[in-house]
Design a protein that fits this description.
Blueprint lengths: L4 H8 L1 H6 L11 H4 L1 E5 L4 E6 L7 E7 L2 E11 L2 E4 L2 E3 L8 E6 L4 E6 L5
Antiparallel strand pairs: 1-2, 1-8, 2-3, 3-4, 4-5, 5-6, 6-7, 7-8
């Protein structure tokens, strides 16, 4: 039986959350699910696009004028996806809502705003 992220934190400490990600359901969010336009919980418009023909290198551009755009690398990692310094929490994410958890515990929630879902 797998543990939830919260259970890992309570049972084994925050380092275990990142070192053993068996609670993630690999494959439930694929590349096509990530591509497109999103709005995040921090007030940014987020645009995810592919940087290569194999669609394994993605980029998220966070836009919130008048601030300059922020460009974050997205890539598949063992157990899911990473965007900048955050990992995708597949236990809370779906094709229309993504939950990204940074190592320091901050969470950013992305909601799809295009009709790709």
């Amino acid at each position: 039986m797998t543990m939830s992220p919260l259970a890992w934190l309570e049972d084994k400490g925050s380092d275990s959350f990142w070192s053993d990600q068996s609670w993630l359901k690999l494959g439930s969010i694929n590349v096509q699910d990530l591509l497109g336009a999103w709005a995040d919980s921090l007030g940014n418009a987020v645009f995810v696009s592919s940087l290569d023909s194999t669609k394994t290198k993605l980029e998220a551009v966070l836009a919130r004028p008048p601030r300059p755009d922020i460009h974050l690398s997205m890539r598949p990692v063992e157990g899911g996806w990473q965007c900048g310094n955050a990992k995708l929490d597949l236990s809370w994410s779906s094709r229309s809502t993504l939950h990204w958890v940074a190592k320091d515990g901050r969470v950013s929630v992305w909601v799809r705003i295009d009709d790709q879902a």
